[in-house]
Amino acid sequence: MPVYIHAPEEEAPWSMGAASQWWLHHSLTALDQSLRAIKSRLLILKGPAQRALSDLIQTTGATAVHWNRSYEPATIARDTEIKATLRETGIEVDSHIGNVLLEPWTIRNGSGEPFRVFTPFWRACQRTLSTVPAPLPAPRSIAQAKKTPVGVPIADLQLLPTRDWAQGFSSMWTPGEHGALTRFEQFLDEAVNHYAGERNRPDHAGTSGLAPHLHFGELSPRQVLAHTMHITGESSQIKDTGAETFLREIGWREFAHHVLFAFPHTTDQPLDQKFRPFEWRQEPTALGAWQRGQTGIPIVDAGMRELWHTGWMHNRVRMIVASFLTKNLGISWLEGARWFYDTLVDADLAANSLGWQWAAGCGADAAPYYRIFNPILQAERFDPQRDYLRRWVPELAALPDAWIHQPFRAPPMILAEVGLQLGKHYPHPVVDLAASRDRALATWQRLRTPADPLDAAQAAPRRAKGKRAPSKK
Q: Could you tell me if residue 189 is left (phi over 0), alpha (psi between -120 and 50 degrees) or otherwise beta?
């Protein structure tokens, strides 16, 4: 009997955000429809999970319960308790690996400790990928239980927003297994060969868009592995450099779960403990401008508006907006993590925590704090035709390419020619980029310990290139 138990309070303090709830509603609907096609159905119950399972077992006479493991701190504690309680009553309970390729506790460094750096972690994973079993085919039928409770309608979970802010989601996403497989097949047919270069271009459709499907279990990493690699005997070979780069991004997803499992406190506290007393600024006005895409920095605003309207943001732009929040505005990475967790359809606690701590310089394999993205240079490099800016910041669309990414530096005559008045049609920057960069470096300098290898004189001239986004694959 396929069962979903809705118990968001058991995931606190990181209960599912609003965008994820939208996805979950449609994902459950799609799952129920696919089950009905093989003469089964999805039973939906409300939590607490322990009570719901116990009542269900008593009603149906079930003798076994199975689920795929979750690796978030709150769900680990809940599932461990449920497993122990049910086994005490004689119920067979088995949890399985389904959300990752390799169990987080099986990959360790030479000292037997969890990895904190991605490259050696992924190298260790690659040595065992050939042992990952191939995915099984979907069942053709599921035997019906003799006694089947009615359950609750999906609508009773009240997952959809009461105010239709998610109207842009449906045009971009198709939750469910069918939507996942369609998107994956299209990616393998069209984009994967150029993925290594195109994944950094927000103006192009060069990424897979599979993160929400992976998070909700509509597509498994095992399926991704099997379709992305040639299997020859006991050895596995990557198809090409695009596929290799793509699979490496799946490796980052594995790494995020590895880090969260080993260091569960990193959902709310920095992995690098010297950042605990860091002088984060309290700037509610600036934070609100960042959330609304009204900072006056076009590439930042484009990303934040894309997030609000689609529930997603391009990988490269996630790095830019995260650097801007934590370095230029000096606002805590936790504020960014909470906003992303509420507004991303692919909000994943492990990836979200890892990515934001990477951006802030306080996590695993983190970019050094002194590495600060220049949003103007990033826009010039990765949105060279300014198509991304013109799509998401249309009030600037008439500006020439030389000024659309920095309208605050445009000559008055240029602004007048296109009828653009800063402060009226588009905001002035909420912060001076150069001055805020200097302030961030000074704050970092006060935090440094004598063991830190780089002094402020070395840090000052550096420019950020970056390697990793907060949460998107």
A: alpha
| Active centre residues (catalytic) | 249, 252, 280, 315, 333, 356
**Spatial CA neighbour of 133 closest among 229, 11, 223, 53:** 223
Q: Are residues 61 and 134 in the same domain?
A: no
Give residue 336's Cα distance to chain centre: 12
**CATH code for the domain of 433:** 1.10.579.10
Q: What is the pTM of this model?
A: 0.91
Give residue for tokens 């506790």.
105
With bands split at pLDDT 50, 70 and 90, how would you rate the model's confidence at 458?
A: very low
- Owning domain of residue 248: 97-138+176-262
Residue 88 CB neighbours (<10 A): 8
Place of tokens 């907060």: 470
b/e code 92-102 from CB counts within 10 Å (16+ = b)? ebeeebebbbb
Task: Mark 149-158 as b/e (b = at least 16 C-beta within 10 Å).
Answer: bebeebeebe
The pLDDT value given to residue 449? 53
282/257 same-domain check? no
Out of 262, 293, 312, a domain closes at 262
Q: Are 320 and 355 contacting, i.e. CB atoms less than 8 angstroms apart? A: no
pLDDT, tens digit, 9 for 90 and up, residues 282-328? 999 999 999 999 999 999 999 999 999 999 999 999 999 999 999 99
The model's pLDDT over 401-421, given as tens digits with 9 standing for 90+, comes to: 999 999 999 999 999 999 999
110/13 same-domain check? no
